[in-house]
Amino acid sequence: xxxxxxGSSPPGSFWAASGQNVRSARKKPKSRExxxxxxxxxxxxxxxxxxxxxxxxSPSDAKRKALNFAREYAGxxxxxxxxxxxxxxxxxPGTGKTHLAVAVGLHAMRAGHAVLFSTVMRAxxxxxxxxxxxxxETETQAVAGLVFPDLLILDxxxxxxxxxxxxxxxxxxxxxxxxxxKPTLLLSNLNIDEVKGFLGERIFDRLREDGGRAVxxxxxxxxxxx
Length: 226
Fold this sequence. Notes:
The N terminus is likely disordered. By secondary structure, this protein is an alpha/beta fold. The protein has a 5-stranded parallel beta sheet.
């Protein structure tokens, strides 16, 4: 489904639809009609609801809010690009944070935008690897590779050690994206206060500007359920 870029991107990331390179993915779409957000077919966690004792149970308000945010964010991505509006998905594992973020990313790619998905650990490792003598890219190039995409999706925020070096690298990337009005989606299994503590006040404040929101996924995990 996804194609790795030919350059030195972090492993486990995607840039553009299969058969496209980054440059072609940035071309403007021919039609002005906004396509609807399509969730990956693997699961339907945000559908019309589950049947319980013959009756259909509606999704919770929290699920509805999460889906509505994703739909609005993806559907108005041209406006999102103008402001650099960000979002933070927080909640326990298995609640669909990555599922919705990938749907937003795919929607943006179908509209011709460049998208990069990576864990925070891989992104930080990419910058650290540039410090090696035999590195094929400089630190500036490594950071630029994370700043370039129209949408950056960073998963597993808070899994890292939280050292000052890691915070400085993350601040460097997010601050430059902030200055260039490039939107970022952050995903974490931590609660919002823990995310704020991990990222630091400076980064967190930048994520909240221009209407940036935190979306809480507070329902039970879907993993292991039939």
